[in-house]
Amino acid sequence: MGDSSDTDPPSKQGPPCPFCDAGMYKRHCKYVCPNHGVVYDCSDPFR
């Protein structure tokens, strides 16, 4: 009941999307573009 790790709102702390420059959201270990979905994650070696 008290665990909300899957429902926490994303924070807008990520870099701009490389495709459309929209502000990306940091969600757990991923950067999510509101237009393109997940763009980067922790295992991305090119980040």
TrEMBL record:
It comes from the Archaea. This is Small CPxCG-related zinc finger protein. It comes from Halovivax ruber (strain DSM 18193 / JCM 13892 / XH-70). InterPro entries: HVO_2523-like.
